Structures are given as structure tokens and as C-alpha cells.
Amino acid sequence: MVAALLKIRKGDEIIIPAHTYCASAIPFARNGAKIIWADINPKTRTIDLNDVKKKISKKTKAIVIVHLYGYAVDVNQFKKINREIKIVEDCAQSFGAEINNSKAGTIGDFGCFSFHAQKNITTLGEGGAIFVKNDKLSKKVPGLRHNGHCNYGINRKYYWKPAMGDLDMDLDNRWPYKFTLSEIQCAAGHLMLDKLDKLNDIRIKRAKKFINKFEGEVFSFNGDFKKRRHVYHLLSAHVKPTAKINNHKIIELMYKKFGIKCAVQYYPLYRYPLFKKMGVSNQHCPNTDAFFDNMISFPFHVWMSEKNFNYLINSLDKVVRMLNDKEIIYIRKS
Ligand SMILES: *Cc1c(COP(=O)(O)O)cnc(C)c1O
């Protein structure tokens, strides 16, 4: 949707962090944009401002800022780079996240939200929302998401001619989509909206408990919580290069001893065969590689029972002890 609203043409450059889920990039690539991969800041694990500054060119049409893991990026810093370049916020993992009292998704030109089953709230499995800052442009969304139709409220001499609008959204002759939600999904979304803050509070409380226990010599978490509401879509850690153990050992033992499946994500997008075949893999980002190669993502969802969450904590505690010859070396340095 945003790729259409931006009127992406072949050769337009879009800067996107390589450390994200593939859906941050595919819609732009599909529309012919040249993807320029941005590195992450190793502390925040989100798009790095200085790297973006280096990669801006005359052809840069937009920067995609992914508020990954539920951590709100300081979007205003990116807006200052060049007012002509549009800012797209990917908020699929950050519904309800805040930075300096602004909601993620409302600071840039566009905000994209996902209500897929795994996100912080869902509309019965699939769904999404989009925020468009420009008023005139936002009027193109209803038609663009529904086969070009508009309602009869549109100002025309004969409201009924042609039926349901003229299908023309003035988007460089682009075909419209069918991106509509069903009524029951919208009703569910309405109910979930009221619960969002409460559900996010549970995530935050649990994440803080976990981080307070494990941050230290083995694990580091993405920090800087001043002026931020981090809504912990995921709970992930970097296994420090100075630690005696690595992520694969921990993941293996967590599964073999306790039946807990941790994950490693996100695979740097330029390493995927699809991106390679499509010719968008010719740059590498050192911080992205270094983080991915020794990170661990723990099972984390608001519907996990308190009992299971404590089982996760106790199991990780045991695994780290086993790997460190029973020494507890992850005590927080205060
Ligand atoms: C889930 C996700 C998406 C895609 O959302 P859909 O609703 O499946 O289209 C995009 N970006 C990120 C970062 C995501 O986690």
C-alpha cells in the first residue's frame, strides 16, 4: 500500500534495515525499488542513523524505520536528515510503543501496523492498519485497498456514474488491491484495542523481570528506556562476545534438557536465497551480521502462563550454570 502511495518507480532507492522480518522489504522490492540495506546500531538493534546518512543518495525516496522487538526508534533524528525523503515506520512489532510521548507510527509520513496472530494484538489471525500523515494522500487509501471503489458520498454530477467510483486513484496507473478486513475481524480489533495497554503492561513487567535477572556478563539486552515505552514484542538477547559460551550451545541445551525452543532471528535479509536471486544482496552490514551470529530469542508471548514463564527463567538459569561450570556469572553489574 505504502509502495503504491509513494509511487515507487524502478530505480528509486529505499533504505531498509537488513535486520528485520522479510515483509519490511518485499513490498518495496516487488514494486521495483532498489533496496539499500542499512546496518543496525549494536546497542538498540534497530536502524543506525549514521549508517543511513552514509547511504542517502539523490535517488533515495524513503527510509523504512522498523521499530523492531517493540523498541521505538527515535524517528525525529531521521526526519532531520532530508525533509524530501519520506519516512515509513514499520510498527508491526510495536503497537503501543512510545518515544518521547509520541506513539510509534505517528511520527513519520506513514505507519504500518500488523494484526497477524503473533503480534501484540491480533484481528483473528490476519489484518493490519496504515497511518498516512498527508490528508490528500490518505483519501486514496479506501479505493486502493478495495478494487478502486469509493462510496456514493463522492462529489460527482451523477453520483451513480460510473458505479462505485471510476477506479482511478491517480497513482501512476497502478492497479488497486483488495486488502479489506472482514466485519468480525474489525469487531475483534475494536475489542483488542481496549486491551492493548494492559497486555503490553504484562509484557513489559515480565521482560523487566527477565532482564533484571540475566543482564550481565553473558547477555545484553537492548536498552535505553528513558523516554521510551518498549512493548517487548519479542524478548531477545545478544550473547556477549566476551562470554565463555555461545548462543547455539544455550539453544541446544534449552531444548535438550528442558524442551524449550529458542530461536535465532532475524536472518540478515541479504543472506536469503530469494534476495540473492533478485539481486538485492550485494551489501553487507557488519553490526547486523555480528548481532545475528550470536543472538538468542526466547519464547515470549502474553498468553504464556506465569508458570511457564517462570519455567523459562529457571531453565535458562540452570543452562547458564551448566555451561559455566556452575559459576553464576550473569549477575547484574550495578
Ligand atoms: C509481522 C511483520 C510484518 C508483516 O506483517 P503482516 O501483517 O504479516 O503483513 C512486517 N514487518 C515486521 C517487522 C513484522 O514483524
What are its keywords?
334 residues; alpha/beta; Aspartate Aminotransferase, domain 2; Aspartate Aminotransferase, domain 1; 6-stranded mixed sheet; 3-stranded antiparallel sheet; globular; binds pyridoxal-5'-phosphate
Report the radius of gyration as a whole number of Å: 22 Å
Largest sheet: 6 strands, mixed
CATH homologous superfamily label of the largest domain: Type I PLP-dependent aspartate aminotransferase-like (Major domain)
Q: What is the chains' assembly state?
A: single chain
Ligands (ions, cofactors included): pyridoxal-5'-phosphate
Helix/strand class: alpha/beta
Mean pLDDT: 93
The run of helices and strands is HEHEHEHEEEEEHHHEEEHHHEH
CATH overall fold name of the largest domain: Aspartate Aminotransferase, domain 2
Spans of at least 5 consecutive residues whose pLDDT stays below 50 are none
Give the termini separation: 47 Å
Query: Could you say which overall geometry the principal axes of the C-alpha atoms support?
Result: globular
Number of helices: 11
Report the CATH architecture of the largest domain.
3-Layer(aba) Sandwich
> Into which percentage range does the β-strand content fall?
5-15%
CATH class value of the largest domain: Alpha Beta
